Each structure stands twice: as structure tokens, then as C-alpha cells.
Input
Amino acid sequence: MIIQEENREKNGLILEKIQRIQMRFINFIIKLLFGFLLLIMQFTPIFATHNRAGEVTFEQLGPLTIRATVTTYTMTSSVAADRDSIEIFWGDGSSTMATRANGWGDPQPNDVKINYYIATHTYSGRATYTISMYDPNRIAGILNVNYPDSANVPFYLETTFSFLNTQFLGDNNSVRLLAPPIDFGCVGQVFRHNPNAFDIDGDSLSYALIIPLQQMNTIVPDYRYPDQIGAGPHNLFTLDRKNGDIIWNAPMVAGDYNIAFRVNEYRQGILISSTIRDMQILIRDQCQNQNPDIEVIEEICVFAGEIVETKVNISDADPDQMLQLSASGAPFISAKNKATLTNKDVFLFPPYSAIFSCETSCEDVSEQYYQIIFKVTDNGFSDTTGLTNLKALRIKVVAPPPQNTAADPVDDHMIINWDYPYLCSFTDNEYFRGFSVWRRTGSASMYQDSCSTGIDPNLYQKIVFLTNENDAIHYFYEDFEVEKELNYCYRILPEFARKTMDGFPYNPVSGQASNETCNFIPSKAPLITKVSVLETSDVEGRIAINWQMVDPELFDTIKFPGPYTMRLKTSGNGTDFFQVDQAVYSGETYKDIIADTSFIHEKLNTIASPQHYTISMYFSEQEMPLGSAPKASTVFITPEAIQGKNRIKFNSEVPWHNSSYMIYRKTEDEDQFSLIGTSTTNSFDDFDIENEKLYCYYVISKGNYSFLEEKIISNQSQIACIEAIDFIPICAPLLTVTNDCENAPDWIPGDELFNNLSWDFPDCPERISEVSGYQIYFGADADHLGLTQTVEGSDIREYKHQGNNGLQGCYAVFGLDQYGNPGMQSNVICMQNCPVYELPNVFTPNGDHVHDIFVPRFFRHIQSFNIQIFNQWGQLVFETDDPQINWDGSNKRGKSLASGVYFYVCSLSAGPPLNDIKLSGNIHLFR
Output
């Protein structure tokens, strides 16, 4: 027992000793790990490189509730700075810690990882808010951001939006950017990118290039636009404000670049949200290949329900490389009609083709085009990526026109009907609203192709804003606002709109109009069928008037008993009518007055103006009005002598449609008129003329009532004469334009520089004696020249000019003959401005009246201007669009700033064709 106790005691001592050794080892490991962690923390600012690109988007869930998604693209290898959660600031003073929604993130090639952080928030009221996120680290080595220390420049994203009145204006969802914000290019090769923005609400979008931000209202320090790195004439970076195309032609220096742009969203012309995307462009050096090529149609319009199918051709000048075709756009993410693309996202040897296909539906009808971005990438780099190219296909889905429209007269009104159901009668969320009805008097042609939507309000008037009335066989509308004997023509237009939660429409869209349908309601009054000039004279003029009576078999003598009276009335201006006493017809029965259907009106002045006529009908002893014939006038012609031709214009106001005109002419030495041509418009040009010879013309019109197509109505105009002016135009002058731009010192202001024009006639010096003067044309470009000055006399062949935009513009000169007719145009010469803008780097706002204001040393020919001045922390302290600047050293609140070094970014333009100029530098402020 004693031995067992001793052994037990020894074993306990040994166990205690082992435990002490284990504790020392554990403490050692803890200290070692703690020291290692301190070491990591010490060097975190150096190695915590992280953010590459990203944006903030949102969707509206309720009247005041949104769900925001922050998407970031980070370095996969930057483990120390990996964020499993970020703080989302809602713009109302609150914030939310949002965990990463996609686990550890989605790793991509080229050390890129995609992260999604999603959170929901409810606001207290309608207002404008800015959702934002902030991270202390970008990646290291960005060439155009605080180079070489970009790693410690914060990464900031924001989206600003307004809550709309959802009862009337609907929800507001942010734009979706369907193309990733990481892209690759190569030195010396054109870089192309498009973010492919899409708005689910159908709002219109625009783009604006901005400087990346490091916090709200604070740009990153020492930023350079990409084309300022290795700047030169072959290095130009642009962003298309309408379609978002980014073109860099071409990068000169390899490395990583960051740019930022704002996508603005408009509804009914009002800005309702803006989203900032910060994206990264990776430019490689020593690329041994060329950009691949991609061919696809640029634009297509289809009717809803049709299938879009088109071929995409892929090729490359480097046949040993493989190419990968990808595509993005709203049809690929549609829940209803998914688009398909063969050979998508696989590397294949070129050349090859792919087929893009998409079945459309009525829910796809939109005022905006759907944009598909096709992108082809070669494998010219070692990491399976390479040079790219992209092409855009724009698809517009149009609501089809209603079918089989017809207008039928019933008693005193018109019934317009068309097929039921309409192709888009039944849509999700009642997107199809109904039809509007449009009307005009008389027929009108309206060109329509597959892209055409809406109706020109100058041609037709909307008489019904919305109708869905139908009898399960036809849609129909009854038009009671009609007059008898007028030919009414109708078109039907399908209407679509999104609906608010309370049923109010917003973002309306019209489809394609139906074919035109025309008809009339027969009148009880006569119908004029001829108003033709028989004799042209200022005193002895004669006009023949014919009319057509209502068929006695169709005239209701019980409803409209006799006796009957018919009165012909005339007017010289078409407004003030008086009775023609010789043309009053009366009878006890209707048959008594239908025997006379013509009259010759005599003793008229048919030279000065046209004559207008109408016929009024009366019934019963009380002479109750039965109706009046629509007014009809004679055809009246007006000849005009202009250079090398006589132009004959003709006009008439008649209730029928004149479809053609026959033009007759005779000269002073001819006895008979001869037909010289026909016209379907209201004018005719006669080129077969001799100078100073008298020509006389008349016109015979041909037409018909649309409801009496078989009866041709023929009327003759008066005779009108004119003396022709025919000439051989003065030959083209040779124009020369010079200015002192190249020799002018920088301090010479723009308003002291002029373009000096001079010209001569080396091709026809013998005709200078015929010149009576000159016309000088000027415009912004060669296609938009306008008359700016007329110079009298042939000896003055010089002109000094300065336009509203300085020296910029294009010139041409015409010689005038003795009749004032311009000859042939000279050569066109376009001049450019010679802009100067020079800023000092020091100013001293200390009140001594010497250099107290920061102004440019010299400037001229500056058409647009903007300068932003920042302090050493990147905060904006001053901004102006005035090229004089006139900065007094105070901030935007008027508070004087301390002495120090300030940074400016300046954008200015001297006008096309010169490129916009970007300047940046430092300002030393001393007090």
C-alpha cells in the first residue's frame, strides 16, 4: 500500500511537470503568433492593396424601401485586406454593416475577385438620398491615381437617387451595368469598352466622365486622365455621352488605370438618379498581336412577338490565336424571353460564326433600344486573356399596328372599327393600355418602316386618348364630331405604359399606327364638282361652276318638305361670301331644282385672286337651312422667274384631292398653248427658257372625291405670264483665307485676330465685268454655310471677318451677275482657332492689390471652360466655368484659405475640330 502511494505521488509529480512544460510551449506559441500579428499590422498599410472597381445599385421594394447592392472587384491575392463585410451608408444619417452575400467571393482570372454586399433599408420620407461605401485601400501602382502610392488612396462609390411619388410616377430602380468594369488593352492598340447600361423602368440614360472619388465630394489626389499618361496626338480618350462607348486611341504606357463615370437616369426629362462606376483598365506592353475583329448588324427593329436572329462573324489577323465570344444585354437577363448565342464563352480558332437569337414579346415594347454588346477576346496573353474588340447591336421592339381598320358612316356619325383581339391585348401588369384614335380631313400618306412609331401631330389630330371598347369581334369608336360631305381619315395607335401601384401610367410608349381608313357622311346639300376659269381678265373674267345633286331616290322629302331654294355664293377671300343673284334656283318639288347643275359666272377679275364658291340649300316655306356644299376655289397660279428657270406655283382650296397638274405654256411668238409637263406637287420648274422672253402658263388640275373615285374633277387655272431670266452662271471664284494665328504672340487677345478673305477668277477673267457683287457664306462647318455678307461692286475682292467663335469656321464665296443671281460656289476653306490658355503657379491674396486674384496670364479662343481647385486632402475648394477664374483664395463658403499648395484640374475647349484640352497642376497660395 505504501509503495502504491509513493508510485501514485511520483506519477502526479511527473504529470504536473509535463503540464508545466505544455503551458510554457503554449505561451511561447501565443507570443510568437502575437508578434507575427503585430508584424502584419505594422506592414498592413503597405500590403493592404485591395479595390479595383465597383458600383452601387438598388431596387425599390416599396414606397420608401430599397435593397442596395454594392459590387466590388478586388485583388484575390490581397488576403490581408479582404472584406467579409462593409458598411453601407444610406444618406439619411444611418448605415448598415452588410456581410458578403457570395461567401468568400467569386475569383476570376487575372487576380480579380467579385464581391456582392446586399442590404435593405426603409427611409422616413420621400427625398433625394446618396447611398455610398468607403474602403481605405485601392490596389497599388495605378498609373493615373496618386502614382506611385495609389494603395493608400481610399476607394469610394455612390449612387444618388430620388424617391418619386409612387402613386403617379412609379418606382425608381437604378441602372444596371451589364458589362464587367475590368477590361484589358494593349499599348498602341485601340481600346474599346461599353458598360452596357440598362434600366428596367425604361428611363432614358446618359453618361458623363468624372474623376474617381475617395470620399463624398472629394476626388482622388494627383489624378490624370488616361490620355495624359504618355500624352500626344495619338493618345485620345473619349466617352460617348449617349451610348456609353469608351474609346482610347491609343494607350501609350503599360500599366493599370482607373476611370470613373456617372450614368444619369431621366424620367420625363427629370434627373431621378445617378450611379458612379469606378472601373479599371489593364494595359499590357509588347503585345505581339492585333485586335480581333467582329462583324454584326448595328440596328434592327422588330414587331413584338417576332424572333430576332442574326449572325455574328468572328475573325482575327492572327490565325494562330483562339478567340472567345461573349455577349451582354437585357435580353440575356430577361426572366421571360432569354436570348441565346451559339459558341458563347468558349475559345475557338477563327474564323467562325455565331447565331444570336431572341424571341420578343409585347412586354418588351419600349421607347428605348435594347443594346447587346458582343465582345471578342483573343488568348494573346499568357493568362488566357488578350486583346478585345466589341460591337453593339441595338434592337427596338415595336408594338405592331392594329389590323383591318374601317370607317363606316351611320346616320349622322362615323363608326371606326378594327380587329379584336389585338396581338398585344393581354400583357403582364396591364402594360398594354388601349388605343388612341387620330383623325384628319382628307387623306395623307405617312411613310412607315419597321422602326416607325407614333403619329405626326402635324398630319393628324388625336381625338381619343384611350379606348378599349369592343364587341368581342371588333374594337370600335363612334365619332359624332363630323360634318357631312367631308372626307374623314382615321388611324389607330396602340398605347403602352408602365403602371404605378395605384394604377397611374408612367413612361408611355406608342406602337406603330394602323393603315389609314377614310369615309364621309353624305350631305343633303349639292356637291361642287367644277370651279374652272374660262376667261382670264381683270374685268371680263369667266368661271364655270358645276355641282352634283343628291339622288332624288335617296332624298327624304317627307323629313325635308318643299318648297326648295338653292343659292350659289362667292367670295374673293374664302371667308366673306355673298349671293350670286343670277344663280338662285327655286322649285315646289325637289325634282324642280335638280335640272340646273351648272353656272357660268361672268364679269370677274380672274387675274388678281382666286374665286371661292359654296352652295346653300333651303327647304319649307320658312326656308329652313338644309346644308351647304363644302367651299371650293379656282386653281390660282403664280409664276416666278429665278436663275435659269421659271417656277410656276399653283394653289387651290377644294374639298376633293387634286392628285396631278398638267402645265401648259406658250411664248410671245406662239399662237397655241402646249403641254410641257405634269406635277404631283404644287409647283413646276420650266428650264427650257430663253433670257428676256415672255412666257405664259396655265394649269389643269386632276382630282376626285375619295368617295367618288370614278368621277375625275378637272379644273383650269387663270393664265399668268412672266419674262424669263436665263443666264450662264459666273464661274467659281478661287478663295484664299489667311490669318496671323501662327505669328501672334500669346498675349494678343482673340478679338484682335481676323480671317482675311481674298478671291479672284482665274478660270473666267473675261466675265469680271459682268459681276455686280459677291455673297460671302460662313458656317461652323462645310455642310452648314449661311449668307453672312453681300458685297456690292466687282472691284472689291477682299473681306475681313471674325465669327462668334473667333477664327473657327468655314467660308465660301459666290459672284453675283447683273440680275443679282449667284454663280458657282468657290472652294470651301475652313479655319481653326489658335487657343492659348496659360495659368500662373503662384498668387498672393494678401490685400496689397498685387496678384490678389488668381487669373490666367493669357487666354484666347476658349469656348467652354471648367476648373476645379482642390486642397492637399483632395477636397474641392473652388470651381467655376468662367475662363477668367477670378479666384480670391477663399473656399466655396467664402472663407479665406491658408497658405499652401493647391491642385487644379481644368477642362477647356476651343471648339471642333480641335480636341478638348485637359490641364492640371499646382497653385502656390501665399498670404
